[in-house]
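Sorry to interrupt, but I need a hand with the structure work. I would like you to pick a protein and set down its sequence and fold. Please put the record directly below this note.
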Amino acid sequence: MASLLPPLPALIDGAALFLDFDGTLVELADTPDAIAVPAGLAPMLERLRRKLEGRLAIVSGRSLADLERHLPLHGIAFSGSHGLELQLVDGTRLPLSVPIGLDDVRAKVDAFAAARPGLLVEDKPAGIALHYRLAPGEGAAADAFMTALAKERGMTVQRGAMVVELRPTGATKGDALKAFMTEPEFAGARPLFMGDDLTDEHGFAAAAGLGGAGILVGPARDSAARFRLGSVKEAARWLREVAA
């Protein structure tokens, strides 16, 4: 496993910055609703937006509606649901394709979770996630159930930190980055993608493919990222420094 160096502040010069949310900008929590958003996050993102002349995007597994509850910002591009939802800098949202039979899939996941204390179901516009952080012993059973359901319904399994999600086959966080890079605000810049989870590896790879780099947040692991910051606190410190 290659050792990843911390990014120098100068890396931000001429860059477009793509930021994951959970585990990158905010600490992970036992449930999605239990996160604590730092009071200084929104002002810091606004400074970054000005510094980068609008080349800033939040790319998250959360839905756009959920992100808006925590980051009611304007002038920043957003992607939700692992690339399935896109909101451009001007606020325009691109149409979302919802898979046929999703309500029935949700009912099956709800029934599975109801029989196993500690499992938490998270509805998304085009998919459904099953969290097992409160019941880690159920992780293998949750994964097997969701994998079988995905095969039955022609959906994709997306695994993350103590969560397994069913979603339509298609977009990833990397696809969201590529889409944003075609927009006037981002075109010609060098993309940097900062994230912590396995779902962010698509973003790291996409950034590298366009001449940029990934920045892994958290413990070292095999990764497509080129740089690493050891924690959410280290990431916040670096972002404050480059935004100043």
